[in-house]
Design a protein that fits this description.
The chain has 375 residues and is α+β, with helices and mostly antiparallel strands. The radius of gyration is 21 Å and the shape is globular. It has 6 helices and 21 strands.
Length: 375
């Protein structure tokens, strides 16, 4: 009980610090992620990417030995921390920036992604003379995946780097994100920069969405402890038996809207009750079926022009699911599904040139394959 009380105090302290108790946060772009465990001990990390402007993402391979350079707090390209990739990384880039990886996995099976965190993300101040210790928030996952193999290594190494919130020209301003990470041992980590300070918190749920801060999602999850994939017991009223009218009654009350808080509960619930007798490779299929529960069809979320997440220029736009991915952390295969093409494409570490010191970019404009059935 003491341990639980201490955790609750910590969570409430974080929420109070960001003004979440008694205040309101901004809405968030609708990215959702979770982890599934395979019967062979492996894991699959999966996520969706939603955004209000085209990301024009491409598949990326960052080879071992690639020289990389962080951007400093003044926003100038390449005047921050310099490092060389220790591990090869596959993933997806965004906005034409080939070295900016908002989602990916490295050759050691460490996988994760950047998710939108508007209204709460506030990155670190960089003291005079410390620019060369600094990277931009958009470069956070690239830095982590090219340097670390496990969550424990991230915990030890990330505090040594300063993450600034300088503007990203291709984005049109600072990139407000937080980060979810998962290693092959099953450990998961939430990384958030709030009020200029780094906060790292273990995430046994493996689930992650957008704002509010991660402790809020955990604090609210207990309100849905009644949800179950199993049907409820038959109701008996004075001898009158009232069985459930349909299957699925155990999940009655599961939030179905696209708020980040609702998506967290939905992803947590569906991943908890996913089959456990499937191999890691088979769980990739399960992951994509669950990811489909979070697809944003055009028209479901509209972004007014000029808003915090607004449309391009003076136009109202639709937010859509641009792509979904599933990372097989055991077999080291990264699967990609895009809005325009539901067919799977994969990046297989055992089939890629991991050495070479360069960044390789691969387009995602392959034609959709349709099989014409004939008797």
């Amino acid at each position: 009980m003491a341990k639980a009380t201490a955790w609750r105090r910590r969570a409430l302290g974080v929420l109070a610090a960001v003004g979440l108790l008694g205040g309101q946060g901004l809405p968030a772009q609708a990215c959702t992620s979770f982890v599934l465990k395979g019967s062979d001990g492996g894991r699959v990390y999966a996520r969706t990417m939603e955004f209000g402007q085209p990301l024009n993402s491409q598949a990326v391979l960052i080879q071992r030995g690639t020289p990389l350079r962080g951007n400093g707090p003044d926003g100038k390209i390449g005047n921050g921390l310099a490092w060389t990739s220790r591990y090869a990384v596959v993933g997806l880039n965004a906005l034409g920036l080939k070295d900016i990886v908002p989602d990916g996995m490295n050759e050691k099976g460490l996988a994760g992604g950047l998710l939108y965190f508007a209204g709460y993300a506030k990155f670190q101040a960089v003291p005079a003379g410390q620019t060369q210790r600094s990277i931009n928030s958009a470069q956070l996952l690239t830095y982590v995946l090219t340097n670390f193999a496990t969550v424990e290594e991230v915990k030890r190494g990330l505090p040594k780097v300063l993450v600034n919130g300088a503007s990203v020209p291709a984005f049109g301003g600072p990139l407000p994100i937080h980060m979810t990470l998962h290693d092959r041992s099953g450990k998961s980590l939430s990384v958030e920069y709030i009020n200029g300070e780094l906060t790292m918190m273990d995430n046994p749920t493996g689930t992650y969405t957008n704002d509010p801060p991660f402790p809020y999602h955990l604090a609210a999850a207990g309100n849905y402890a009644n949800l179950s994939a199993m049907p409820p017991a038959e109701m008996n009223v004075n001898g009158l038996k009232l069985p459930p009218a349909s299957t699925g009654a155990g999940l009655h009350g599961l939030p179905g809207d696209f708020l980040a808080t609702s998506r967290f509960i939905r992803a947590l619930t569906l991943s908890r009750f996913a089959p456990t007798n499937l191999t890691t490779q088979q769980q990739v299929g399960t992951a994509f079926r669950i990811l489909g529960q979070f697809d944003l069809p055009p028209g479901s979320v509209m972004l007014p022009a000029g808003g915090a997440f607004g449309g391009a220029g003076s136009s109202t736009t639709y937010e859509i699911t641009e792509w979904s991915v599933a990372a097989d952390q055991k077999n080291l295969v990264y699967y990609i599904q895009t809005y325009d093409n539901p067919g799977l494409r994969s990046l297989n570490f055992d089939q890629l040139p991991l050495d070479g010191g360069a960044i390789k970019v691969m387009p995602l404009n392959q034609p959709t394959q349709i099989t014409v059935l004939q008797p």
